[in-house]
Design a protein that fits this description.
Elements: H1 2-12, H2 16-20, E1 26-30, E2 44-49, H3 53-59, E3 73-74, H4 77-80, E4 90-96, H5 105-115, E5 116-127, H6 142-150, H7 158-168, H8 177-189, H9 199-213, E6 218-223, H10 225-228, E7 231-237
Parallel strand pairs: 1-2, 1-4, 2-3, 4-5
Antiparallel strand pairs: 5-7, 6-7
Helix pairs in contact: 7-8
C-alpha cells in the first residue's frame, strides 16, 4: 500500500504546486531529507544538508533509505550560514521546514536572500504549531529571535530542547538529571524543533526580519495553516 501513502502525501501538499511552478533555472533545496520539492522539470536543483545521506540513514532509521536524497553540499547553517554559495548565485532556494530547527532563524533569512539573484525566488515554510505536536508550546517571540541574531548565536541551547520536552514529552521530566540530559542530547542529534510559530506569527517574523535588513521582497504566493491544516508556506521574489 506504499503507493497509496505516497498518493495521500501528494494530495496533502497539493497547494504547494502553484508556488513551485514559479521556479526556474538553477537552485538549491536545503534540508530536503526524504521529501524533496517537486520543482518543474526544467529546473536544475542541487541538495544541501547538515549531514550526508549515510549519516541521515543512521539518525533516521524510520525513513526508508531509498527515499533520502543524495546530498551535494554539506552545509551547517548554524555554524557557517550558506557560505558555500556566493552572493546572488542562485535562481531559487527552497527552505521547507528547516528554519524551526536552526539556532539563529533571523540570520538564516538573511542568508537565503543573499544567495539568490535579484528577481530570484525564496521558498520558505514552517509548521504551524496549531496542527503539530508543538501545539502546547509557547510561541517564540521576535524579541527572542532578534537577541539571538544580535548575539551571533550558532548553537541551539539546551533550554530550547527542555521546552520541547516540557510540552511534548513531559513524562521524560521524572527521571534523573543524567537521563534528562541524554534525552536533550538525542533531541539535538535529531535536530528537533527549537523555535515555534503559528502562521500569523511566522509571517510577522518574516516581515520583521525584512525590515531589520532593509529588504523589500515581494510575496508571490502564500498559504497559511487554516488552509493547509499543517504549515505556513510561501514563495518570495527578491
Amino acid at each position: 500500500m506504499r503507493w497509496l501513502k505516497d498518493y495521500v502525501k501528494k494530495l496533502r501538499f497539493h497547494y504547494r504546486g502553484k508556488g513551485y511552478r514559479l521556479l526556474a533555472g538553477h537552485g538549491v533545496e536545503v534540508g530536503a531529507l526524504h521529501q524533496p520539492a517537486p520543482v518543474p522539470r526544467t529546473c536544475r536543483i542541487s541538495y544541501a544538508d547538515v549531514m550526508s545521506k549515510s549519516e541521515a540513514m543512521v539518525r533516521f532509521p524510520e525513513i526508508p533509505p531509498h527515499k533520502i536524497v543524495d546530498v551535494d553540499y554539506i552545509v551547517d547553517i548554524d555554524q557557517r550560514g550558506l557560505s558555500d554559495f556566493a552572493d546572488e548565485s542562485l535562481d531559487f532556494i527552497v527552505f521547507n521546514h528547516v528554519i524551526e530547527h536552526v539556532a539563529n532563524p533571523v540570520h538564516a533569512v538573511k542568508e537565503l536572500f543573499r544567495v539568490v539573484r535579484p528577481g530570484g525566488m525564496v521558498v520558505i515554510s514552517a509548521p504551524d504549531k496549531n496542527y503539530t505536536y508543538d501545539k502546547k508550546r509557547p510561541l517564540t517571540p521576535f524579541a527572542h529571535l532578534l537577541a539571538e541574531y544580535q548575539q551571533g548565536v550558532v548553537d541551539v541551547t539546551d533550554e530550547h530542547y527542555l521546552d520541547f520536552i516540557r510540552a511534548v514529552e513531559p513524562r521524560l521530566l521524572g527521571g534523573s538529571e543524567a537521563l534528562l540530559q541524554q534525552e536533550v542530547n538525542n533531541l539535538r542529534n535529531r535536530r528537533e524543533h527549537a523555535h515555534v510559530w503559528d502562521s500569523v506569527t511566522f509571517r510577522e517574523f518574516l516581515d520583521s526580519s525584512f525590515d531589520l535588513f532593509g529588504m523589500r521582497p515581494r510575496c508571490l504566493y502564500e498559504v497559511g495553516g487554516r488552509r493547509s491544516r499543517f504549515e505556513y508556506f510561501s514563495v518570495w521574489q527578491k
